[in-house]
Amino acid sequence: MKKEEKELNMENAIDALFDENNTENIKLYNEKDEEVEFEQIALIPLDDIVYVILKPAMKIEGIADDEAFVFEIVEDEENGELLRLVEDDKIIDAVFEDYNKLLDEENNK
Hints:
Blueprint: H1 3-18, E1 26-29, E2 35-46, E3 49-56, E4 69-76, E5 80-85, H2 89-107
Antiparallel strand pairs: 1-2, 2-3, 3-4, 4-5
């Protein structure tokens, strides 16, 4: 796949994340340039950054079925908006803490 096509797919993925009517999986590419589908779990704004919780839609070796990933939406001058995997445990914990608060609020309505 050409770089321009990947960038277009990334823009479409980010647009799909913000589309309330979207029920399709989000398609991203791993470090081996393989397409990986994710189910969108939540968008979490935290400290002026929008984080995205995505769960793999298919089995990934070494990843438990109930695991999800946290990505941040970052602005790149050259490529526009991109998703970057968050690896900082403190940020991941804060994102899931906010997500769990949202779930609790929704369940208490």
